[in-house]
Description:
By secondary structure, the protein is α+β, with helices and mostly antiparallel strands. It is 35% helix and 24% strand. A five-stranded mixed β-sheet has the order 1-3-4-5-2. β3 and β4 form a beta hairpin. It starts with a helix and ends in a 10-residue tail after the last strand.
Amino acid sequence: MNDxxxxxxxxxxxxxxxxxxxxxxAWAFGATADHADELLSLVLAGVxxxxxxxxxxCELTGEAIPRAGDYSxxxxxxxxxxxxxxxTRIDIVPFGDIDAEHAHAEGxxxxxxxxxxxIHERYWRTYSPAGFAWxxxxxxxxxxxIHPAPETAEVHP
Length: 157
């Protein structure tokens, strides 16, 4: 994958010289290729500015919790780099205490808290090795799309 990431990162750095020399972690949203492309489309359109992950799952898998200022390369459903985001805020909150503002920032469905809860409970019950609990700690990440600019972004088929 580095043979794809490295040149893509170099091209991004050419247009945004303030990016660090070494590429950050690269990952895709969701658990399937279609879901990754759907959520990437929301990011590229400027609709999705937040995401959430299970803290217990991070602990089980060794996945690092992002910090404000961190960059990430977002992959499409085929594993190709498509965007760079920068984390602006992290809050760790019990699932039942997630607020409507965060649900709206995630950009999914009708962007309501009710829809967010349904989608994420189903997701964690289906895909997370840590399972789901109403009081489980959730890492709520807010981010900004850094590259490409929303007006020039598109998902590559």
